[in-house]
Amino acid sequence: MANAQDFVYTPVNPSFGGNTYNYSWLLSSADAQKKQTSTSTSTDPFAQSQTNLSDFASNLNNQILNQLASQILQNQFGNFSLQNGQYTIGNYQIDIKQGTQGLDVNILDTQTGGQSSITIPNQ
Prior knowledge:
The chain is an alpha+beta fold. The protein has two helices and four strands. It is 36% helix and 22% strand. It is elongated.
């Protein structure tokens, strides 16, 4: 003689028919497992103005550094133009050659192995 009983499945999640008292427990458990930090999307005008101000300062700083680099190149090389050849500047190895579609500039970071390729189209 074999004994048996009915198997009844009750979901835990209240969204799928589970007990509604499980909602807060499930939510707090999910929040505790989050690895991604939430970014603040504050509507505070002061916080937004601080962000805009820091963006402006960063942009201004980049433009000043760009002008400084241009001035250094101008003083060092005169009317700077790209010539075919291979150049080493710091950790960068720059290879310039005429390609089929224009001037090919390949830049290799010898320290990290990172590479960039730029093609300047023929005019």
